[in-house]
Amino acid sequence: MSNILCEFPYNDHKHIALVKLNRPKVLNALSTDLMRELVDKLFELDDNPEVRVIILTGNDRAFAAGADIAQMVEATPIDQINDNRFRSWQQLAQITKPIIAAVNGYALGGGCELAMHCDFIIAGDSAKFGQPEIKIGTTPGAGGTQRLTRAIGKSKAMMLAMTGEMIEAKQALDWGLIAKVVPSTTLMQETYETAKNIANKAPVAIKLIKESVNKAFEMSLSDGVDFERRNFYLTFSSSDQKEGMRAFLEKRDPEYKGN
Ligand code: CAA
User: Contact at 8 Å (CB) between 57 and 20?
Assistant: First the structure.
């Protein structure tokens, strides 16, 4: 059975791909194989000119309950190095198209880290987020201490990582970890509506926004603003910028070509 499923389920929108984590018996625990398959699939979608937005999800019970503990329990540091276990995580950052995490159920440890690697998170009201690695004698290892701290601040990140406590979706929203909470039963429909909104925008400008926002975590404010301005100039070499502005002035809907 494949650890990753990929569909194009939205007949009225061929530009949106849905990727599902598929190890339901172990709450989508993120094995090395799953992570490799996930990255391979995401690269394939990133290279597919038809695809403009990717939705990443799990199932009603779990987005993902973390790295696969059974696979790690007896590992040595050298096993982890030789396995290149973290290479897949680094590769996730190379995807240029928008990825929305649609989270129901548990997003814990590596599952929370995976959701945070996505561009933003929409959660069902059943979702639970946390970094519980401390409960099994270790620490977050795929960016949890870094991305969570940037998202919700030092004090709350320290508390979550040191206690291993989970927070509900509403709390995650109030703390700025996620973009939106919706009823769990309508999560996929609501995420689709947001994906459709983005897929109808100029695809190159969307990629440049992703790049510029992510730079905010890496650069000083003045360097980041310079970087942003260059991306802004760059959009003026696209047909989509001309189309978007002309359509506005002509009071019609734009038709973007992605160039
Ligand atoms: N790895 C491997 N298997 C896991 C797993 C994980 N992270 N999480 C759950 N499972 C398995 C369980 O072992 C169980 O398998 P069996 O049916 O064969 O016993 C199955 O999934 C269902 O889980 P539970 O019976 O435990 O379900 P529950 O509803 O009672 O509890 C839970 C749910 C609170 C999420 C609990 O499963 C849990 O605490 N899971 C572990 C969470 C965790 O510690 N995650 C961090 C992992 S380390 C990490 O992620 C490091 C990193 O940063 C890279």
Answer: yes
d(C-alpha 118, C-alpha 208), whole Å: 16
Say if pTM beats, i.e. exceeds, 0.85: yes
- Mean pLDDT confidence for 109-131: 98
User: Hey, is 257 helix, strand or coil?
Assistant: coil
Residue 185 is classified by DSSP as: G
Rounded Cα–Cα distance for residues 153 and 176 (Å):
9
Q: What integer is the mean pLDDT of 189-204?
A: 97
- Ligand 1 centroid from CA 58, angstroms: 14
| pLDDT tens sequence across 163-184 | 999 999 999 999 999 999 999 9
Residue 50: phi and psi, rounded to 5, are -75, -25
- Considering the candidates 37, 101, 113, 127, report the single residue annotated as catalytic: 113
Q: Which among 56, 59, 44, 52 is positioned nearest to 19, based on CA atoms?
A: 56
Active site residue 195: no
Percent of the chain with pLDDT strictly greater than 70: 100
Single out the catalytic residue among 133, 142, 161, 172: 133
CB–CB of 143/117 below 8 Å? yes
Which of 3, 22, 23, 26 gets mutated to test ligand 1 (max ligand atoms within 8 A of its CB)? 26
Atom of ligand 1 nearest to the CA of 144: 53
Mutation pick for ligand 1 pocket among 68, 69, 74 (CB with most ligand atoms within 8 Å): 69
How big, in percent rounded to 5, are the helix, strand and coil portions of the chain?
A: 50, 15, 35
Cα separations (Å) of 241 from 28, 50, 139, 201? 41, 19, 45, 10
